[in-house]
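Notebook, bench 3.
Goal today: get a predicted structure for DUF2288 domain-containing protein from Fischerella thermalis JSC-11 so we can plan the truncation constructs. The sequence was checked against the plasmid map this morning, with no discrepancies at the termini. Length recorded as 100 residues. Pasting the sequence as submitted so the record is complete.
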Amino acid sequence: MTNPNLRAELTENLDEAEWDWLIPHAQRDAVIVVAVGLDILDVGVAIASDNVLEVQNWIDEALIAKPSLEQLGEWNSDRTKRFNTLIVQPFVLVQEKLAA
C-alpha cells in the first residue's frame, strides 16, 4: 500500500541543481538519470514505495540508469548544466533540463 502523502512529500523535494552540486552524489554512485519525457515524480514514487516491477521495467527500457561515462564527461565539462532533481534516499534522481 503506497502512502497517499508520498507524492506530496516528494513534490516538496523537487528542485533544480547545477551539475557542480551533484558531483559528490555521483562520486558515491547515488545518481540515477531519468529520461526526458518520463515524469521524475512518478519514478520517485515508484522507488520510494518499492514498486519493483515498474522500476525494473524502466531499467529494462533504459529510461532510468546510472550516468554513463560519456554523460559524466559531458557534464564535467559544463558544470553549470542544470537538472531537475529529486532526492529519494539514498538516491538522487536527475533529469537533464533541455536548453530553452
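The mean pLDDT is 94. The CA atoms of residues 5 and 22 lie 27 Å apart.
Flagging this for group meeting.
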